[in-house]
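Human: I hope this is not a bother. Would you mind checking the protein record under this note? Thank you for your patience.
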Amino acid sequence: MALDEPKAEDTEVEADGFKFYIEDLAFENFDSFTIDYSDNWLRRGFSILPNGLKEQTSC
């Protein structure tokens, strides 16, 4: 995860009024993503986790 400007190769996704920009390569390979926030003694901050690989085809 990075805080930077969107690039031409990014896909824009809006959820609950927030805009997220995901690299096309990641968006093409995973079905969806889970955005989570942790605030405990071990870790504090956001994490983005992919949910399931999309079906891959060979060349």
The chain has a mean pLDDT of 82.
